[in-house]
Design goal:
This protein has about 180 residues and is mainly α. The chain has helices at about 5-10, 15-40, 45-60, 70-90, 95-105, 120-130, 130-145, 150-155, 160-180. The longest helix has 24 residues, at about 15-40.
Length: about 180
């Protein structure tokens, strides 16, 4: 048995489930937070989505078939939870998802939880203007340094399509940054 299989077994066994789940949260909470934060932008919203993600993981761990790594399975849940959260928030505000994200990016300078410099804010605003899929692929590839195989598992998209999305995202950001200068 692989270490992941042993861990999954512990997560599914009633006697060890709570302790194993605590270890899971401890190990992945920060990485999932930053993945989610790049998607939803707001610190408090990211914390809410992290909590929802771990609730879904806890509820659905019995259905995990180990066809992917636990890491990519949780990232898929986190990505979906993030997108659903954006859709819900934007809808409540009477905005399109893109409009909601751009408005959050415009407010980053006033966010006490954002510690980036001016260049980071400019980059975040440019990333926020990307179409949703390009934005997520760019974040996972550029900031998280994920390989295309992992991103493909998480997003359920072909590697070729991901490479194309990333290429288009980088090109758009470069053009916009050059236009601003």
């Amino acid at each position: 048995m692989t270490p992941q299989s042993l861990f999954i077994k512990a997560l599914k066994h009633p006697d060890s489930r709570d302790e194993a789940f605590s270890r899971l949260v401890s190990e992945y909470k920060e990485r999932l937070y930053w993945h989610i934060r790049k998607i939803v932008i707001d610190h408090d919203d990211a914390n809410d989505v992290v909590q929802n993600t771990f609730i879904k993981v806890h509820i659905n761990i019995e259905n995990f078939k180990e066809k992917s790594s636990l890491y990519t399975w949780m990232y898929r849940i986190a990505s979906n939870e993030s997108l659903n959260f954006i859709k819900s928030k934007a809808s409540k505000m009477g905005l399109k998802n893109q409009e909601w994200i751009e408005s959050l990016a415009d407010g980053l300078i006033a966010d006490p939880h954002f510690d980036g410099d001016e260049a980071a804010i400019i980059l975040q605003k440019q990333v926020a203007q990307l179409p949703e899929k390009q934005r997520i692929v760019f974040n996972m590839r550029y900031f998280d340094r994920m390989n295309y195989e992992s991103i493909s598992e998480i997003l359920g998209t072909s590697i070729g399509a991901l490479k194309s999305s990333y290429h288009h995202a980088v090109k758009k950001i470069k053009i916009r940054l050059n236009d601003e200068n």
